[in-house]
Amino acid sequence: HAAMVLALAGLAPAGTAFAASEPALLNEPMFVAYPAAAFEKKEEGKVGVELAIASSGTVEGCTVVKPVSQALDEASCAFWKRTRFRAAYNDQGQPVAAVIRKVSDWRLPY
Question: What share of the chain is helix, strand, coil (3-state, %, to 5)?
Fold first, then answer.
């Protein structure tokens, strides 16, 4: 499997009506294995995902909102489910669940 740089880019929060602050990344792994099926088909693109972040900072769910291909979509969710966030907080300073959007930018190494 070829290595690739997974650029982490944030989008506006999708549904943080109950959160005074949005979750922040605690770990930012920069290199991941490019999915073999996508590599063989020379697939590239930006996969948009919506992440359900628990009040503990773990990713409880991932929904692809801007698909590219099955292989890249699945790899994007697998990546985000391995990341850890600092929780969002409500107006009283208590950690709360939140929903945010992120983008995985998949580029073939040339």
Answer: 15, 40, 40
At 79, list the tokens. Answer: 């990546």
- Beta strands at 45-53 and 59-66: parallel, antiparallel or unpaired: antiparallel
The pTM assigned to this predicted structure is 0.78
Phi-psi region of 30 (alpha: psi -120 to 50; beta: other; left: phi over 0): alpha
Pairwise CA distance, residues 66 & 103, whole Å? 9
* Contacts by residues 62-67 (CB-CB < 8 Å, ≥ 24 positions apart): 65/14, 65/101, 66/103
Distance CA 39, CA 21 (A): 37
- Model confidence pLDDT, tens digit, residues 65-77: 999 999 999 999 9
